[in-house]
């Protein structure tokens, strides 16, 4: 019997969601977001950056319809289980974690709605959404906001071009360096 048959479909899906989540965390930790683009290098800023990448993956998976619903839920659950553990490691008490996670999840749903609407409406709306959410605790200059909005539009295009199987396998091929350098990203390049 092949090794993969030893795991249930749910366990394999959970493992793949974990793998995708870790890949998205790696993307969100790109230092240039914090050093060049002014995303606050704080717990909140890192949550916002990670939320943006998880949102882009979920936005891509939405195109698969019901076929991706369980996997998308697994990705969401993985993210918030990690948030729970991180808060506990930062010293939050048991009684304080649940309400904070609830607020974070509600905020995440709000960001999904804001980013969806902004990507549909255009550049000005995306700048506003990024200013309010990603840069909520700081005031970056307009050039930085415009550059970040352009980067988010490019990343949205890159995620849209990913085969669903790459996401299900936890291997999103999203070339950040060319995007951050202002160059078109080569298709199929690795993280």
Automatic annotation (TrEMBL):
Domain of life of the organism encoding this protein: Bacteria
Domain (Ubiquinol-cytochrome c chaperone) ranges: 36-172
Family: Belongs to the CBP3 family. Belongs to the UPF0174 family.
Protein name: Ubiquinol-cytochrome C chaperone
High-level lineage: Bacteria, Pseudomonadati, Pseudomonadota, Alphaproteobacteria, Rhodospirillales
């Amino acid at each position: 019997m092949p090794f993969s048959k030893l795991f249930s479909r749910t366990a394999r899906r959970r493992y793949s969601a974990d793998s995708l989540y870790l890949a998205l965390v790696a993307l969100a930790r790109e230092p240039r977001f914090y050093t060049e683009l002014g995303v606050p290098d704080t717990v909140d800023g890192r949550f916002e950056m990670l939320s943006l990448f998880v949102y882009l993956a979920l936005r891509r998976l939405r195109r698969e319809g019901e076929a991706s619903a369980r996997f998308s839920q697994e990705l969401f659950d993985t993210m918030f289980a990690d948030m729970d553990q991180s808060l506990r490691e930062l010293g939050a008490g048991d009684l304080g974690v649940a309400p904070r996670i609830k607020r974070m999840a509600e905020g995440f749903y709000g960001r999904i709605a804001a980013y969806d609407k902004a990507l549909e409406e255009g550049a000005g709306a995306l700048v506003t959404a990024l200013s309010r959410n990603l840069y909520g605790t700081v005031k970056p200059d307009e050039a930085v906001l415009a550059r970040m909005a352009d980067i988010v539009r490019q990343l949205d295009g890159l995620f849209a071009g990913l085969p669903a199987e790459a996401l299900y396998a936890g291997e999103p091929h999203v070339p950040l360096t060319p995007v951050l350098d202002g160059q078109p990203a080569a298709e199929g390049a690795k993280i």
